[in-house]
Amino acid sequence: MSDQLLITAERIEKNIYTVRGIEVMLDSDLANIYNVETKRINEAVKRNPKKFPDDLMFQLTQEEFENLRSQVATTNFTMTRILPKVFTEQGIYMLATVLKSDKATDVTLSIMRTFTKLRRYAMEHKNLTIQIKALKDELKEEFMQEMMKTKSWTKDRLSAVADSIIILEESISELQDVFSDFKSANEVEKIGFERDK
């Protein structure tokens, strides 16, 4: 039975970082996922410079590299004499065209799907946050209108309303937490690749 190199959306997501406001992946992480040496990726880039303009691939500055290392608690960031290169989503696609293997194509498709899923999640999360805020504002407005209609409230009635508001606030807060955790709770898409013997 041959070894399987399992590529999951979750594994890919953990290797996507934001640098200069752009989502990118490190050359070493891509090499690990493609099951090749980092130098092979760098050689492919060197042989095809026109395919990798600065908006598709760039080398990190020392400051960017140190900042990334301080933010991410991982062993991926080993000491290196050469600053790593990072690839944008389009740069990763171009990388697949120069690596020219079925495995590279399959892995790249998985990476592209993950980038798409992350964009979709970010848009959905943004919309849900807006909807939750609108619901909160609407409920507050309805409550204020109801209070204006009723001139005299008993102490028990005010206490019940206060309790309801607290429960509502807690429910909305829990709902926001659920949406924040949605990404990690998502089912992980798995794609298997056989390792070269």
Top keywords for this entry?
single chain, 197 residues, alpha+beta, four-stranded antiparallel sheet, 6 strands, disordered N terminus, DNA binding, DNA-binding domain-containing protein, coiled coil
Can you characterise this structure?
InterPro entries: KilA-N_DNA-bd_domain. Residues 15-98 form the KilA-N DNA-binding domain. One of its GO terms (molecular function) is DNA binding. The protein contains eight helices and six strands. By secondary structure, it is α+β, with helices and mostly antiparallel strands. The protein folds into two domains: 4-118 and 189-194, no CATH class; 121-185. The longest helix is centred in the middle third of the chain and has 48 residues, at 102-149. 16% of the residues are buried. The model is unreliable at 1-6 and 182-197 (pLDDT under 50).
Summarize the structure.
The N terminus and C terminus are likely disordered.
Physical arrangement of strands within the biggest beta sheet = 2-3-5-4
Number of domains: 2
Helix content: 55-70%
Give the uncertain stretches in residue-range form: 1-6, 182-197
Q: Report mean pLDDT, rounded to a whole number.
A: 72
Biggest β-sheet strands, sense, barrel: 4 strands, antiparallel
> Distance N terminus to C terminus?
11 Å
Beta-strand percent range = 5-15%
Task: Compute the CA-based radius of gyration.
Answer: 24 Å
Global structural class = alpha+beta
SS elements, strand count: 6
H/E element order: EHEEHHEHEHHHHE
Please count the helical segments: 8
Shape: elongated
Keywords: Coiled coil, DNA-binding
Domain KilA-N DNA-binding: 15-98
Coiled coil: 118-145
Protein name: DNA-binding domain-containing protein
